[in-house]
Specification:
Largest sheet: 7 strands, parallel
Number of strands: 14
Bound molecules: nicotinamide-adenine-dinucleotide, uridine-diphosphate-N-acetylglucosamine
Radius of gyration: 19 Å
Length: about 325
């Protein structure tokens, strides 16, 4: 069975590709490499001993997509492709709406032409905005605080409406919490361009000497130590969640939204301590002002994933830190030279 991964050369897509190949699926990637490196393809081959067909093309390009679907018998699509930097989306909203929504709509249109009826979509906990309570269930209120978030919210809506109009379609909307870590081989991992926005890549860059210290954004939040609490999950666990979602989509029709998180919240300082424990490297930090738009705490109620998909995160915070460091120390400049 062949799965098309849009954005499959990216951080989560590449890890999912490795897990899919290991589980015996065939994988086809379409990626325009706007936020990834072609080196990923060689690394995937190295880890899995199998090659993937990859199209260097934009998902908004209808004719390129038609070529992908006509040259491969695709059974299911996992739609990762999208721009994902929150701050950037506030500065360049049209770029985000154009890319992320156009990709979703073009993909659905061409899937329909080729009678491909199963889609797993990369959504985000960002659709919950400022949660009224934690842990967050899938039926919680949704409201976004930035254009990136709105593209996820709107894509969920577009996919849901399309699936409802076609009784045979199956759509699984996966709302990821905070994926971190890397494949145990240290050959693929997260490779942000410029100064990392997210916590773990920043910490690993401090550890490798690329940055002097971590800025802890605020220590006056309503949490156990005053720093922000999030639900960090290992990217390999997350990748496996996609396989469960594909299996679910094979057996069911309709639309379902599912949280993928561990259900546990860790503060910024918990993560600093966990990283130090797992790697033996001290992370100097300074308390800095709050980052605009940040919230106190965000973690999942992960019970629906277990009930519907039979998925549960298995790897620990130590595994996440160790693997993130293994990737960073073996690739101090990511996929760059
Ligand atoms: P990523 O940037 O590493 O991967 C996205 C990939 O999509 C990149 O390889 C990029 O080149 C490609 N891409 C973007 N627009 C494209 C287009 N129009 N056509 C073809 N390719 C295109 O990001 P990631 O962390 O792997 O995230 C994957 C998905 O999961 C994204 O949709 C992201 O919004 C979502 N998500 C990520 C996180 C996270 O913390 N990483 C959390 C929640 C949701
Ligand atoms: C980010 C995204 C969000 C996305 C989520 C999951 C932003 C603003 N939001 O949020 O849309 O759904 O990831 O991928 O990018 N922190 C520091 N110092 C740093 C970096 C982060 O103290 O240098 C703190 C933050 O204040 C926060 C925690 O670490 O409390 C986690 O931050 P981050 O990794 O950016 O994730 P989210 O804030 O959850």
């Amino acid at each position: 069975m062949a799965v098309l991964l849009t954005g499959g050369a990216g951080y989560i897509g590449s890890h999912t590709c490795v897990e899919l190949l290991a589980a015996g699926y065939d994988a086809v990637i379409i990626d325009n490499f706007s936020n990834s490196s072609e080196k990923v393809l060689e690394r995937i081959r190295e880890i899995s001993g199998r090659s993937v067909v990859c199209y260097n093309a934009d998902v908004c390009d209808e004719s390129a997509l038609r070529r992908v679907f006509s040259e491969n018998k695709i059974d299911c699509v996992v739609h990762f492709a999208g721009l994902k930097a929150v701050g950037d989306s506030v500065k360049h909203p049209l770029e985000y709406y154009q890319n992320n929504l156009c990709a979703t709509m073009t993909l659905l249109k061409v899937m329909n032409e080729f009678d491909v009826e199963r889609i797993v979509f990369s959504s985000s906990a960002t659709v919950y905005g400022v949660p009224k309570s934690t842990p967050i269930r899938e039926d919680a209120d949704r409201w976004c605080t930035n254009p990136y978030g709105w593209t996820k919210y709107m894509s969920e809506q577009i996919i849901s409406d399309t699936a409802k109009a076609d009784g045979n379609m199956s759509a699984v909307l996966l709302r990821y919490f905070n994926p971190i870590g890397a494949h145990e081989s240290g050959r693929i991992g997260e490779d942000p361009t410029g100064i990392p926005n997210n916590l773990l890549p920043y910490i690993t860059q401090v550890a490798v000497g690329r940055r002097e210290h971590l800025n802890v954004f605020g220590n006056d939040y309503n949490t156990h130590d005053g720093t922000g609490v999030r639900d960090y999950l290992h990217v390999v666990d997350l990748a496996k969640g996609h396989i469960r979602a594909i299996e679910y989509a094979q057996k069911n029709t309709g639309v379902i939204a599912v949280n993928l998180g561990t259900g546990n919240g860790f503060s910024v300082l918990d993560i600093v301590k966990a990283f130090e424990r797992a790697t033996g490297i001290r992370i100097p930090y300074k308390i800095a002002p709050r980052r605009p738009g940040d919230i106190d705490a965000c973690y999942a109620d992960a019970s629906l994933a277990l009930e519907k998909l039979g998925w549960k995160a298995e790897l620990s915070i130590d595994d996440m830190c160790r693997s993130a460091w293994n990737w960073q120390k073996n690739n101090p400049n990511g996929y760059g030279e």
